[in-house]
Every structure is written in C-alpha cells, then in structure tokens.
Amino acid sequence: MSDTTLHSGAAAGALAPREYHLAHEPHPESGTALGFWLYLMSDCLIFAALFATYGVLGRSYAAGPTGAQLFDLTLVAINTAFLLLSSITFGFAMLRKQMNDVKGTLLWLGVTGLFGLCFLALELYEFYHLIHQGAGPQRSAFLSAFFTLVGTHGLHVTFGLIWLVVLMVQIGKHGLIPANTRRLMCLSMFWHFLDVVWIGVFTFVYLMGVL
Amino acid sequence: MSAQHTTHVSAHDGHNDYGHHDDGAPHSTFSGYMTGFVLSIILTAIPFWLVMAKVIADRNTAVLVLGAFAVVQILVHMVYFLHMNGKVEGGWTLLSTIFTVVFVAIAIAGTLWVMFHMNTNMMPAHPTVPAEVQQGATPGTPAAPHHGSP
Asked: Mean pLDDT over residues A64-73, rounded?
C-alpha cells in the first residue's frame, strides 16, 4: 500500500529514505471480482441445502405421480440448450467488450437475454403444465422439493435478466466506462454460475429422476 | 492474463476501481469460449442420450455415470467460462471455491447419509420394536410418524 512508503521529506530524521513498497503486492488489485465470487459461493450453499432437501425427499411421492411420469426430457433438453447457448453468447459479449465495441456488446447481450427469456418461458410452461395436472407443490414432498429447487434457480435467472436489461440501458447511455465493464464482469460470473447450477439440476433432478 | 498489468501498475492505481482498465478480470479468448462450448455440448448430449435411449440397465451404474459427466462438465464451465485458475486474485478465488466444494460435499453427503439411516431405523411397526411400546401407542396412530411414502 502507498501508506507504507516513507518519503524522505516526512522522515526528516532518517538517515536514508527507506522504501517499504513491494513490487508485487500480496493483495488483489481490485477486490470486486473476489468479493462477487464469495457471494456466488455463498449462493452455492443455498443450492447445496436445496439439493440435499431434494435428495432426501425426492422419492417421497405420497402415492402421487413420480418424476418418471411427470418429466418431459425433450423439454428439459431444449431448456438446457437455451441456457448453454446463452452462456456462449454472453462469452461473445465479453469478447466484444474487450475490443471496446459498444454495439457488438449490446447485440450479444440482447441475444443472451432472448435465450434467457426462452429458458424462463419454457420453465414457466412446465410449471403451469404440472400444476394444471394436479402435480403442484402441495401434492407431495417430492414436488415441494422439486418446485423449491427449480423455482429458486428460475428466480435467479429472472433477476439475472433484470440485471442484464438494466446494464444494457447503462451501457447504451454511458458506453463501456470502467464502472460498466466491472458490472459486466460480475453479471458474466453470475450468468455462468447459474449455468453451472443448472448442470446439477438437469443431472440430479431430471435425468436421475426418470431412471 | 493480468500479469503484464501488475508489473507497471503504481500503488495508487491499484486501489482505484475506476482508473483501472482491467478490473482484475482475466483476458478471455474466442478459442477458449468455443472449446468450453463444444465440450459442454458433448458432455450434455451424452447423459441425455444415455437416459432417453435407456442405454444403461443398472440404475446404480447409471447414477454414477451421470454424476461423473456432471462433475466433468462443471469443471469445464469453471475453467473455460468462469476462467478459474490458481492465479486469479492471488489464488483466493480458487481457495474459496475449494472450501465451498468441501462444504457442499459434506452438507449433501452428510444429509443423505443421516436421513436415510433415520428412514430405515424409524419405520413404523418395525418388527424389532418391543411389544409394550406398540401397546402403549395410541390406537390409530403409528408409533413413529413417517412423512415419506406410506
């Protein structure tokens, strides 16, 4: 830190100005990425608790419908494709950002938002379909755990979409100023993190639930 | 990577988020994203195919195989999309991630372990329950409440 540097003027009695400043500082240049990462890791713990709950209750059907009867894997595969595509298009937006291309960044962010919206629409359709069949969250412990876990992920995607739209407005207004690139970096981490959680959801809830 | 920036960044720049042009974000490349994307498609398509075409008959084997694919794909996302390595933020990102992984593993494995033992040991009308306990229970209610499948 700059405070540790002793200037010759300040240290009048010193024999020689002594430098305490290290060329390679042990702490990160900007703590934002690390701080946001720690938030994501704490979010990970929420999902761990929900996954554990689903693991315990996932076979308690209360004589109701089972996962094998309810889940439509084709729908889940399309949903997974939407989320995976939105991840790579966000990557393209980050590459455009590195080239300082405001229009390109906004274009790819828009495409990412559209894929995210498709994902959310399909998930809401699935929920509506399940509740319409009488397989709502009140039906059995399995369905309560299912709706809580998948719904929490969907809620995260919803807030990610709101953040995306707000950030697009900010970039459109102010361009790729340092504050906006920092926000973009955080949203990128958030978005890719949601994709990582979805890997757990489609594997442990849908694929293993159908087995 | 940000290695070339750290060498000439002065002490004042290092603490100013607005003046810093890189924000500690690792430099991403097109080939990196595409590698991650192609690997993810493969690692997603195979598990879906395994389940939808009913390739593996044994349930336990299928669960292990699906779990392995999920772990590999999560690693691919971490490396290629989240740019995880030992150098970002002086290694603190990796360290906090390892801590979270250990915590999550203990939480999930521990929960399943404890709860499934509870389920087997607290089944209602268990044959090993002594006769006086069963007589003492109120008629019509099971000795131990069981929230699972009846």
From this structure: 93
